[in-house]
Design brief:
Elements (H helix, E strand, L loop, with lengths): L2 H7 L13 E11 L3 H14 L8 E7 L5 H9 L6 E5 L6 H12 L2 E6 L11 H11 L3 E5 L12 H18 L15 E4 L15 H9 L4 E5 L14 H15 L3 H14 L1 H13 L4 H24 L9 H28 L5 H25 L14
Bound molecules: guanosine-5'-diphosphate (GDP) and magnesium ion.
Guanosine-5'-diphosphate binds next to β1, β2 and α4.
Length: 397
């Protein structure tokens, strides 16, 4: 690790940091930490036993720390006992949680390889040289430590609930990204080696949660290899995984998957379809309560609109919300969605009376037409950035 890099570790984080040149044949081990004081000494001891002679493979350890305990002080004290360089980047402003921490580490790595691993010894340190060695031998750009190939296991994943969540997340992710994740049996793994050269600046923003998934999807490494590993018990302390992080993961999956206009169109359609459920449920409730079906239709439509708005905001246009206030967005959204209702009825009449279509195909055609129009109008009128004053140029989100 260069002197410049060392100095930069204590400097404020520059969000537009340019990517460093890589140093051939060397490794930066990026270890995110959040209150892991009890694991540091043992982790560094085991790494010391595992890492090869620096002349063969120079390795440096970079902790990216968001702790509120004395983890950074413990790291600095323990660092002195080791032959390999150990640094800690403590973030005063925590952005993007675990994924954000890894991204900060990757931005600062100037070595040929990066290895990402957890601090709690669930990822066996002795595998670090094996991951990099496998990459060098096979020419792979990415080597994943996998629990799901022969020789690997999830022994340390506490409880059937955690195992089910992990398995479900793996299936969902593989199903959503079959091509990008070909050859990766364990996309949820937080333990992997990657050539620094395949990580593009674009791949590192916006910050992700499951960083391996993000890197695989955005960087599309040409060749991928896997090494089996047995997921160990946590050595000390408690897991920081929470249901909130699980929700963040789902939202992140959606934003990765909806990066193209076609994917957004499909997402928009699926959410629109799901809106029939609250719409019909509200219609049923209101008419049962004695309301005439016409005003009930209009009110029930608002329930569907609210449902669609919340899902579209959180899953589809999550990154594009800040151009307008939420009240402005929901107002425009509701206007378009209700306009859709007004447009659909005369459109059906035209299809039937002028073109001689039957009511059913006419209705289907009107639904598709207003759906496409509504998608285009929603994107243009609610979520497209406003032109910046004076220059007439658009600012990107
Ligand atoms: N820097 C940083 N590290 C984190 C954060 N959350 C978790 N970690 C670290 O990420 C690794 C994995 O977290 P862990 O709680 O063990 O997750 P689990 O293995 O899924 O239960 C550990 O080294 C944690 O200290 C965070 O918000 N910031
Ligand atoms: Mg863990």
């Amino acid at each position: 690790m260069s002197e410049d890099l060392r100095a930069s570790l204590h400097a404020p984080i520059d969000p537009d940091l340019t990517l460093p040149q890589t140093v051939a044949g060397s490794v930066t081990l990026i270890i995110p930490t959040f209150n892991e004081a009890g694991n540091i000494v043992e982790l560094l001891r085991r790494l010391g036993d595992a890492l090869p002679d620096p002349e063969h493979l120079p390795c440096a350890v970079l902790f990216v720390d968001d702790s509120t305990d004395d983890t950074p002080a413990v790291i600095e004290k323990a660092a002195a006992d080791h032959a390999f360089p150990v640094s800690v980047l403590h973030r005063e402003v925590v952005e993007g949680g675990l994924g954000g921490a890894v991204v900060e580490g990757v931005k600062r790595a100037d070595t040929d390889w990066i290895v990402v691993m957890d601090a709690d010894l669930q990822h066996p340190p002795h595998l670090v040289p094996e991951l990099v060695g496998e990459g060098m031998r096979s020419g792979a750009d990415l080597v994943v430590a996998s629990r799901y190939i022969s020789g690997g296991s999830r022994a340390g994943l506490a409880g059937s609930y955690r195992i089910a969540v992990s398995r479900g997340a793996t299936w969902l992710t593989k199903g959503l990204f079959p091509r990008a994740l070909r050859g990766i049996s364990d996309p949820m793994s937080g333990f992997f080696a990657m050539r620094r050269s395949v990580v593009t600046a674009e791949a590192l923003r916006p910050l992700g949660y499951k960083i391996l998934l993000e890197l695989a999807v955005r960087c599309r490494p040409a060749k991928v290899a896997e090494v089996p590993f047995v997921f160990q018990d946590r050595y000390c302390g408690q897991s920081k995984s929470t249901a909130r992080e699980g929700m963040r993961f789902l939202a992140h999956l959606a934003s990765l998957r909806s990066a193209t206009p076609l994917a957004r169109l499909i997402g928009f359609g699926l959410i629109g379809l799901s809106g029939f459920v609250p719409n019909l449920a509200a219609l049923w409730l209101l008419t049962r309560a004695g309301m005439h079906y016409l005003p009930a239709e209009i009110l029930a439509n608002q329930a569907g609109i609210l449902w669609n708005f919340v899902l579209i905001e959180t899953l589809l246009f999550r990154d594009r919300r800040r151009h307008r206030h939420w009240a402005d967005r929901i107002g425009r959204f509701a206007l378009l969605a209700n306009a859709d209702l007004l447009l659909r009825i005369p459109l059906i009449a035209v299809f039937v009376a002028q073109l001689g279509m039957d009511v059913l195909p006419a209705t289907a055609l009107a639904l598709v037409t207003t759906f496409v129009l509504r998608f285009a109008a929603t994107e243009a009128l609610v979520y497209l950035p406003r032109p910046s004053r004076g220059t007439g140029r658009h600012t990107r989100s």
